[in-house]
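Chain X:
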Amino acid sequence: MRIFHDERQRRHAPALELHNGGFTAYAETPARAEAMLAVLGATETPPDRGDAAVRAVHDANYLDFLQRAPELWRAAGRPGEAIPYAFPVVGRRPLDLKRIDALMGRYSFDATTPITADAYSSSYWSAQSALAATQAVLGGERVAFALCRPPGHHAGADYCGGYCHINAAAVTTQALVDAGRSRVAVLDIDYNHGNGTQDIFLTRGDVFYASVHADPATDYPFFWGHADEVGEGEGRDTTLNLPLPHGTAMDAFRRAQATALDAIARFAPDALVVSFGADTWIGDPISQFALETPDYALLARDIAGCAWPTAIVMEGGYAVDALGHNVASFLSGF
């Protein structure tokens, strides 16, 4: 299997995040990528295909903001990394805002996702890794893996959050559509719902989004990922959310994934994008599921058995010592 990663993806390294009412050490560290690389071995460096594919799913003003935010933060005399504190929960509209505090709230939905001087670059190269995996699949590979870090599935068209700035899975999906794959499915099996991916494709009839995740009634991102969210307009019935309770182990998770795969099969996609998170592992420090390392190979085998050309995009997983082995187990199933 071809695996893609660029060392620049490891430069984004915030010190702190605001979590549960206080500042704590940032969980989405470069050590995550190092742990995966230590187990997976050699990877291919993706070429720079430019930002057209990124701009195909993200708002131009938002991307400009991501690149300018650290400078604006410093110019305002602020220490540390840029973190928002005020959000337009109603009446969200395009305003000509100048102050960095206002821009941070306009283009973010949480305070756990600092914007560092390397946030855009690392996320850009994460997307380039995903595009390289996409091209490998388009070129005839049955499956390819993008070792994305930072993750991306919480980032919407014009907002960041959940450690995510650029949505690599959405970039991959749109790139497949633009390459002539008329129907593309996304299977999101990260512990947390991929609200950004869902939002980007919510009204699209050519993209099916299915997610198996922790019930948002109890877990982040709380406001999205409920079972009654099924898509809107032309995209109605092309969104499937399968929320699960704390303590979910392999049998229940595998049944939910089978439900998702059955729904995707009825959609009859030309290609599949898998947003894979290993934060469903029993020892993950910020999650509450109970999957074991060997379980990932079985889940992957179920996906591989559907025989769709598949691009896998890495999302979460924060038990650094086990992360590489969990990812290796998943990839072995293909």
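Chain Y:
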Amino acid sequence: MTIRLLIVDDDPLVRGGLALMLGGAEDIEIVGEGADGSEVPALVARHVPDVVLMDIRMPRVDGLTATERLRATSGAPEVVVLTTFHADEQVLRALRAGAAGFVLKDTPPAEIVAAVRRVAAGEPVLSPAVTRQLMSHVAGQSDEPPRRALAADRLALLAGREREVAVAVGRGSSNAEIAAALYMSVPTVKTHVSRVLAKLGLNNRVQIALLVHDAGLLDLHEDEDGA
């Protein structure tokens, strides 16, 4: 299946380079290009992409606002944000808005192609190590009472097993690792992850990880493990 890709970046040289690089892949078709987040709704409506590669810093409507607006619509394409920083607070905002992950602008071409393919297949572009680094970057934010209370209230909607799976996702564990730790099959883990996403109204497992972190559950389980 051909992946329909929209590239949004205010730098024409960057857009051209990405289009040349990604357009060379047999399974990726560049269906459109945009120079600002304000153009995204019209471009998405016109070209119906599967994935949007979105720069964060743009002059009129930035990529964060564009991502939030886009992911709030029904049937929205997946979004991968482009950034020059691997632990940027703006990246976290994009992930909370429903972006499937991020790639650095100096990422090797083959890895950017692989990232687009993974996102199109429904997999977030964040390794467990990067997920843990992001969690560390926002350490202390979950101590804010309103944020922690709201996150805890949302997670209270989960059944016991679903909650355990959610915490494991928050710790950056893969489905196979969760299955081994909780003594269940990988298909069962996938089912629980799908239920967690549906119950909490989330887009992907990165958002699960952020919510678990906000609720302070990662700190709780690390204390239990160390006891």
